[in-house]
Write a structure and sequence with these properties.
5-stranded parallel sheet, alpha/beta, 16 helices, globular, single chain, 3 domains, 7 strands, Rossmann fold, two-stranded antiparallel ribbon
Length: about 375
């Protein structure tokens, strides 16, 4: 593991004295300092907090305390903060729209008409709609003043982070990196800026944990590892190790912080449910269940879901259904750089191109 180097000799390693004629052979022993974990959270991780429950967000408040007490160093380029701000309203609007679509219906089968319970049922549905409207109004009011629970947590994390100013020098270096074609990045100049900022401001001998669910930093050979180019660059410039995690739970576990987030556990179960669907009804239900977690899905989750859409006929047969097509369109847009060695992404895109109606796309971030 990367760390400090200390010169020593064979003589130091032996318990007895050496002969006067012995030659002292100098070598290097790697001494790993007891350092504080350093982390960078990609914008997609912060935006995923809007899909977390209040209970999970309360748990993540403990992370803020660890950062404040300098038990974790969080490095946050100003460009990442801007990415969060740019995409925040869109993420909130998507969640609100999904909630609007889940409406209670007061319609009953004709066989039930005339029953005395029908009127009570219709009154209950009208009351649910009134409560729904009030809940939507309250949510929009809180969103406008950035007082949603996720807003509060994000703002607190940003406040205690080591913020890096992405000045003109950083932008120049990022442009050069993008033109040469060095990672990270997938078009435009986004993660190039963040990476150059981290290279400049993170201290020497820093082991950096990158938490990101997209493929900008991920090796195509081993999805659990960063790109080899980035690992080597970090080692050369910082004498440190670069580590990659696809969600915040994995990162916290890696640094021995015992916080269990229900959102990550639930997400894994819901991915299993949809990929193993055995009926059209189960597919529709799986889509409904996973929609709130779309922006928290990792690249590995996306790869499994795409493979299932190609290989599982209970999904592929109804790919043209509005909810299924919308789900997979959104999924592909959020993960545009998935490794496609098996050809599943290409196959799925071709099948979706033949389906209608067209679905409005969302911007990548």
């Amino acid at each position: 593991m990367p760390g400090m180097w200390k010169a020593s000799s064979v003589r130091d390693a032996l318990t007895g004295p050496l002969s006067p004629h012995s030659r002292c052979i100098t070598f290097m022993i790697r001494i790993r300092p007891n350092t504080v974990p350093a982390a960078y959270l990609d914008a997609n991780i912060f935006l995923g907090f809007y899909a977390y429950s209040a209970e999970d967000l309360n748990k993540l408040s403990e992370v803020r305390e660890l950062i404040r007490k300098e038990r974790i160093h969080l490095f946050l380029p100003s460009h990442t903060i801007d990415e969060i701000k740019r995409n925040r309203e869109k993420v909130i609007a998507e969640s609100i729209e999904q909630f609007k679509q889940q409406r209670a219906t007061s319609k009953v089968p004709l066989i039930m008409s005339g029953l005395e319970e029908v009127e009570a049922f219709k009154n209950a549905c009208r009351e649910v709609e009134r409560k729904r409207s009030a809940l939507l109004d309250r949510t929009i009011i809180l969103a406008r003043v950035e007082k949603l629970k996720a807003d509060v947590l994000i703002n607190k994390l940003v406040a205690v982070a080591h913020k890096i100013d992405c000045d003109e020098n950083i932008y120049t270096l990022a442009q050069k990196r993008q033109r040469i074609g060095n990672p990270p990045g997938k078009g435009g100049i986004r993660d190039e800026i963040n990476w150059e900022a981290l290279l400049r401001d993170c201290p020497s001998q820093c082991d950096l944990h990158v938490v990101s669910k997209d493929g900008d930093f991920r090796s195509v050979l081993d999805g659990a590892q960063p790109k080899a180019f980035l690992k080597e660059e970090w080692l050369a410039q910082k004498n440190g190790e670069l580590l990659l995690h696809q969600d915040i739970s994995t990162f916290l576990s890696a640094i021995d912080v015992k916080i269990r987030l229900e959102a990550d556990s639930q997400r894994a179960l819901l991915v299993d449910y949809l990929t193993s669907s055995r009926s059209y009804q189960a597919t529709h239900q799986g889509i409904t269940n996973l929609n709130p977690y779309l922006r928290t899905l990792t690249a590995a989750d996306a790869a499994r879901l795409i493979s299932a859409a190609v290989e599982n006929t209970q999904i592929s047969d109804i790919l043209g259904d509005e909810d299924v097509l919308a789900f997979y369109t959104h999924l592909l847009e959020l993960h545009p750089d998935l490794d496609d060695a098996a050809g599943n992404v290409r196959i799925l895109r071709a099948r979706m191109a033949r389906e209608k109606p067209a679905v409005v796309s969302v911007d990548e971030f």
